[in-house]
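Case study 2.
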Amino acid sequence: MARRPLPRILSSGSASITRSREIARTAADSATDVLHPLITILRGLRLLAAAGRRKWAATPKDRRGPTLFLAAACVLVVALIPYGPLLAVITVMSAAAWKGRDRTPVRTGPDETEAGRLQALYEALVPYFSTADDPSPLFSHGGDWEKGFDGHTFDADGRLTSLQVNYPAYFTDSEPASRSRIEQLLQAKSGRGREYHFTWDEESNHLVMTVLDALPVSIAAQRFVTAPGETVLGFTDADSVQRTVPVLDGDTTRDAPPVVWRTGARSTEPHLLVVGQPGSGTTTLMRSIALQALQNGDIIVVEGSGTGEYGFLTGRTGVLAVECGLAGALATLEWAAHETERRLIAANRARQAGHPVPEDTKRPLWILLDRPSVLGHLAAADGRPDPQELLQVPLRHGRAAGVTVVMADQFDSAESLTETVRTHTRARAVLGPASREQIEAVLGVEPHTTPTPDVPPGRGYARLGTGPVLRLQVPATPDPYDDATSEAHRQAVLDLLPERPPAAGEAPVTAPVPVAVEAPVVEPVSRDPLVGAPAIAER
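Prediction:
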């Protein structure tokens, strides 16, 4: 059947609408040009009237009468003299036109200093974006910088905040080494001490450089709105994640983009490795994870440095052990390995019998190890096994058994991490000042921004599995028993701690729960007495 042509009104409707819009836009521009003097005079009259009202309001009440009489006398004199009203109108219109003129200069391009910066940057890129065989080079010595740069913005200090670079098609933008050289050059020429984000568009041969704002450090430890099995590692840029959570930032509540790490049976990154320099905030991240894990799970803390950074957790409900010595750490990790095996066996028997999984295997168990390399050196000197060897079972089978391992160490001891730890810790975080090579060695890929040499504690990068590299700022979670901790941060951490269980023969003390905050419900966990769980908990 032959197609019937569309009605003329439908086929030509879009063209008519477009033509009408163009006619209306042209008419509006013409009217603006014609009425520009009138608009200027009206703006000036409004400004003069506002100035007169302010002057009258500032005049004292005892002087308003004489002022009003003097103004009336001047009006009477002007009205009586020849051509007085006409001259008065001309004077007022002239004053209004002068007052209402547009005094904001319209910048049509960069000033002399900014143009000099762009030309210097253009000359610096010539050796990388030009070859001798190019008949019409985009970058050449003494060339015009406008050919290589499309868009640019400067801040109040005259430094670049964004720049779009057009590079030739033969540039090897697919090689990381070539990209890194260009990024380091742009960072050095645009100003150090800032963090730059680079976006490469290989299809269009464009490079966009943007200066990133610093992540806020004012978010402290608090109860985050997350689902079971989700842990907030910190916060990142708004355009890097598709989710926000309400947080208390000082005295105000706002939405912040979090870096959420998912654990559990369906997680693809069940274990976490944190690496950083001394004082970079790795222990702060461990404390933040511990407070979040205590909402619906049990934790075991092994501290290799022996500085007592986790002493505030001792004796709390859900804290099975806090060990600082070698003997206690080995015994605790050995129990954790047996507990992982017990959970696997119990869950397997229940499934074979057609029964639901036992409740004591569902409650998450978190193993937190801070500086295990120190314990490894002590174990080697004492002829004992490395504590990392006891983590093979929790690392290999922890996802199925509900056991999560979180390790934190420093760059100078990263080589002592075993192959099992490197293989099964697919979630990674790097905190503190670090080079691009160090970050790539931990995360697997280079960061998309340029690391700065001076960063606050808790600032770094995170990568979950094969996902993108995200900037990270850990919420402030200091040791509440430290004298250097502020009162606000100390109280924030203490409010998140669970209550201590009552001692034998004491009545349980029920702390009042605020109405606005729902207290987490912690169910007792039944454990097999053969594996020594009560002894660990008592110690």
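DSSP finds 15 helices and 16 strands in the chain.
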